[in-house]
Amino acid sequence: MDKKYYTYLLLTENNSFYCGYTDDVEKRFKAHLEGKGAKYTRAHKPIKIVYKKEFQTKSEAMKEEFRIKHLSHNEKLKLIETNL
């Protein structure tokens, strides 16, 4: 079984986004909710997963995370809308 990697976006309480990558989105989201995910999500409580994309390699997922982190808030909204 090939391992899959994902880039994901979380919506937070203050209507901001957190972007990350993982090999298990649900497990990672649970860690964020428990305050064990990332410094940003400890300060900005995540509400839900609003976007995820699957990749074959960790490198691809990390490149997509880097790309998304450089998008504006509106560009991230468009990304979410086009991937519903």
Description of the molecule:
- The protein is α+β, with helices and mostly antiparallel strands.
- It contains four helices and three strands; from the N terminus they run ββααβαα.
- It has a three-stranded antiparallel β-sheet with strand order 2-1-3, with helices on both faces.
- The longest helix has 12 residues, at 58-69.
- It is globular, with a radius of gyration of 12 Å.
- The mean pLDDT is 95.
Task: Give me a quick take on this structure.
By secondary structure, the protein is of the alpha+beta class.
Key structural traits:
3-stranded antiparallel beta sheet, GIY-YIG endonuclease, alpha+beta, globular, 84 residues, 4 helices
**Integer average pLDDT:** 95
CATH superfamily: GIY-YIG endonuclease
Structural class: alpha+beta
Total domain units? 1
| Contiguous uncertain segments of 5+ residues | none
CATH architecture grouping: 3-Layer(aba) Sandwich
Return Rg in Å: 12 Å
Question: Could you name the CATH class?
Answer: Alpha Beta
Sheet bearing the most strands, described?
3 strands, antiparallel
CATH topology: GIY-YIG endonuclease
Q: Helices and strands, in N-to-C order?
A: EEHHEHH
Helical residue percent band: 40-55%
Strand element count: 3
Largest sheet, order of strands side by side? Answer: 2-1-3
What percent strand?
A: 25-35%
The rounded distance between the terminal residues' Cα atoms is 27 Å
Overall morphology: globular
How many individual helices? 4
